[in-house]
Amino acid sequence: MIPAKEAAAKRRRRRQIWGKIVYAFLFMAGAISILTTIGIVYVLAAETINFFKQVPFSEFMFTAEWAPLFKPESYGVLPLVSGTLLVSLGAILIAAPIGLGAAIYLSEYAPSKLRDALKPSLEILAGIPTVVYGFFALVFITPLIREFWPDANIFNALSASIVMAVMVTPMIFTISEDAMRAVPRGLREAAYGLGATKRVVSLRIVVPAALSGIIASFILAISRAIGETMIVVIAAGATPNFTLNPLESIQAMTAYIVQVSMGDTPTGSVAYHSVFAVGSLLFVMTLIMNILSQMVVRKYRQEY
Predict the structure, then answer these.
(1) What is the pTM of this model?
(2) Range with lowest mean pLDDT among 38-52, 196-210, 285-299
(3) Fewer Cβ atoms within 10 A, N terminus or C terminus of the chain?
């Protein structure tokens, strides 16, 4: 009996030790994530403050000329913001109906075998490197656009928007389809029992019930598009142009960060600090989008 009690006590001590080790590992993982975020915010904030010591905030936010690498310098960020939003919103206008339509079809209409085959195929698009998307836009989409609009620039926002829409469509499709599949079967059967057609059930029962997930997928896709780099660098150009014409060359915020980060700008200069100011603005824009997504999910969440 005594050896059995001792063995049980040893096993209990081992479990306690392993429990403490696992707890310490998980705590360190969480702490590293938090400290990394704090470090990023600190670096952005410190360098951004140095930038605003030399450039007025009003000039940065409310003027429409961006030329930090030329004489005389100008630091109005509106052309970069407009270029980023032009490409991102254009991508969402294309991707949202396609992704939502695919989600409705696979959730409500497609046979189970077809669904099992199509869903992984669509999700593969999310795994393609963005640099591949960028070159695809430049060598295929842009010549196609110029066939219809010969005046379109070789580097243009429309080409980047189309390819970025292809990139973010799997995100909209996956999240929306999962939200629709989570709607209880009983709601559908009740509507069918009242004589509703499949179209009515899909559009007036399932979609409203899954609205929180659908809107969240749109907002997350916009956040993903705003932060995209390689597609806009390769396909949209590097011309800070304050325009709403998608056929013109533009420069997105991420594209400017890449341009200055190539190493030609002296460290400590105003142009060098401007990278962090643009990065901080991009960080704030993405953060706002994520907060909106969480607010929408909480407001429209349906619990069954």
Answers:
(1) 0.84
(2) 285-299
(3) N
